[in-house]
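Annex B. Sample input.
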Amino acid sequence: MTVQCRRITTAALAGAALAALAGAGAASAGSAAGGQVWVFVTANGRNHQNVLVAGAIGDYGSGRTVDASGKPNQNGKFEQLKLHKGTVLIDAAKFNAASNNPRPIIRSKTTCSAVLSWSAPVTIISGTGAYKGITGTLNMKGTFAGVSARFRSGPRKGRCELGSNVQPLDLYVSITGTGHAKLG
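Annex B, continued. Sample output.
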């Protein structure tokens, strides 16, 4: 998996966790609330993620990869979700680790295309705004589909350019999950 794909995956994961937090944040201040949430994240491979959360909460926004203090870090193990009612910090270390060893669903050397998937839990750590005090766990699943180029010269001419450091010609990343978020 490329580093760019991992960044997108992480940001998408953060978005999912944030969405779960958003649902919990809809409760009135001072009361513990939350419930089951479903998270849907799409990424176009160009550092843009769309996040939609449904169920006990309904919200949308975006995410980015950060370090434990919330500072942007392309190699961070955390995701910061920015929704319309606040931010959420998610520990995505297990999900990111799983994305480094995805399960191949399709890997075609004939068409230079691949579909890979991975899954792992993420933990909602903290939030701001309407998501202050949010906690929870989400079970996330990632799917990556991509098409790579072929070598144009040399001993591998005509073969697919595959590998963890190869930039695909185009890609699709989808991250979905469900879990429980609690606020308060």
